[in-house]
Structures are given as structure tokens and as C-alpha cells.
């Protein structure tokens, strides 16, 4: 391919609120998977979580994220471009607009292209940590270790 797909993905990430740019960079039916395919519990905390279609949906996701958090830092540490795919890894620091809590999370992103347009993006982060930046009280019990006891967090 003659186009630098990494540069196209970076352009998309720098223009998440500009629908005209997103429409130029994405296929009309592009899929964006944020954190999970479909998790109703997580969606109650982070309403953008799940699978979304089209450039408008991506703009809506990032608008919601900006309402919930201030981005203090976003670092890309590694990029791998192979064929029609770009993988990006790094970390970000968000501060909750409600609680004031800060969270630093690793992230991984995979973008697939059709020609010179983004057709699919999957974004993964420490969802337990990011959701925790909104925690205001209470405890939750977990029992994960088959030989251990329940823990309360």
C-alpha cells in the first residue's frame, strides 16, 4: 500500500470530534469496539462501552468520554503496521470530572483498513481501573480463586 496507514489512524485520533474529517477517514459502516462487545454492567458506568457503527458513533463516543474525564496524558509507545492493520499501544491518564480521581491505564488499539479508510477499530484499556475513577463508595465482593476466599474491594 502506498498510504501510511499509521498516519491516517493518528489523523483520526486527532480529529475525533470533527465529523467531516471522520467521514473522510472512515468507511460509512466502520465498526468501533470500545472496551467490550456488549457488557450491560460496564455500559451503566461507561455508556460508550460496546460496539458502535459509523463515523457519527465514533464522534459520539469521544464526546461522551470528554464529558466524563479530562485527558491529562496520552502516550503512544509502540506502533505496528502490517498489511491493512495498525496496532497501537501505550498509556493514558484521565481525571474524572465528577470525583476528581485520576487513573493511568495501559491501552491497546487495533485498526483495520479497507483501502485508505478505517473500517474497524478495537480499543482496550484497564476497564476495572477506569470505571474505578468514578467510584464514590460501597464495596463489591468477588470470589475468583477456587482455593481461596471471597474478597471485598
List keywords for this structure.
153 residues, two-stranded antiparallel ribbon, alpha+beta, 27% helix, globular, 42% strand, six-stranded mixed β-sheet
Write the layout of secondary structure elements.
Blueprint: H1 5-13, H2 19-25, E1 26-34, H3 40-45, E2 50-53, H4 55-68, E3 69-82, E4 85-96, E5 102-114, E6 117-125, H5 127-132, E7 141-142, E8 151-152
Parallel strand pairs: 1-6
Antiparallel strand pairs: 1-2, 3-4, 4-5, 5-6, 7-8
C-alpha Rg, in Å? 17 Å
Name the structural class.
alpha+beta
Largest sheet: 6 strands, mixed
Terminal CA distance reads: 49 Å
Q: Spell the H/E element sequence.
A: HHEHEHEEEEHEE
What is the number of helical segments per DSSP (H or I, 4+ residues)?
Answer: 5
Question: What report would you give on this structure?
Answer:
27% of the residues lie in helices and 42% in strands. The strands form two sheets. A six-stranded mixed beta sheet has the order 2-1-6-5-4-3. The radius of gyration is 17 Å and the shape is globular. With 153 residues, it is α+β, with helices and mostly antiparallel strands. The termini are far apart.
Provide a brief overview of the structure.
With 153 residues, the chain is an alpha+beta fold. The chain is 27% helix and 42% strand.
